[in-house]
Specification:
It is a single chain. The chain has 167 residues and is of the alpha+beta class. It has a single domain, classed as Peptide deformylase (Peptide Deformylase, Alpha-Beta Complex), CATH 3.90.45. It is 23% helix and 33% strand. It contains three helices and seven strands; from the N terminus they run αβββββββαα. A hairpin with a 2-residue loop joins strand 4 and strand 5. The longest helix has 13 residues.
Length: 167
């Protein structure tokens, strides 16, 4: 297991939809182990494979003492009730914007053995499940902001020292 370095806004891997996992082998187990370990660092609630440079459909989470992962997640249920709460992202450090999310979410996927997994949660876990699934679809939470906020967020990101710039 290893804590892998993060990729930051501007890196093309974050805007590319992830490939579904079709091979359940030691390489996948290693990726999941790294996601599970990397999410345990302070200030982290979730981590998607693209955030560590891997275009595979998998994420880990650590919210309110619940620590797990999902491979090939699909959101199968969202509450009709939504909430605008401050949201941030490890790949967009130091920025938080109000983001509209359902207050309850259920994700269905599989584990490293291709066995079914279902994760449901309210509040922060619901927000995390939606946020991480967005990453796997090539979306950042910034994409969900209203146009004026998105423009400001992009301006701030491009001016930051962490913004990924083509070499």
């Amino acid at each position: 297991m290893a804590i892998r370095p993060l990729r930051y806004f501007g890196d093309p891997v974050l805007k590319s939809p992830s490939d579904p996992v079709t091979v359940f082998d030691a390489k996948l187990k290693s990726l999941v182990d790294d996601l599970m370990e990397s999410v345990t660092l302070p200030g982290r609630a979730g981590l998607a494979a693209p955030q560590i440079g891997v275009g595979a459909r998998a994420f880990s989470y650590l919210v309110d003492g619940r620590h797990g992962y999902v491979v090939n997640p699909v959101i199968v249920e969202l509450s009709e009730k939504v909430h605008d709460g401050l949201e941030g992202c490890l790949s967009v450090p130091g920025m938080n914007f109000p983001t509209r999310r359902a207050t309850f979410a259920t994700v269905r996927g599989v584990d490293v053995n291709n066995e079914p997994v279902v994760v449901s949660g309210r509040g922060e876990l619901a927000r995390c499940l939606q946020h991480e699934t967005d990453h796997l679809d090539g979306l950042l939470y910034l994409d969900r902001l209203d146009p004026a906020q998105r423009k400001e967020a992009f301006r701030l990101a491009r001016a930051s020292d962490w913004f990924w710039k083509a070499r």
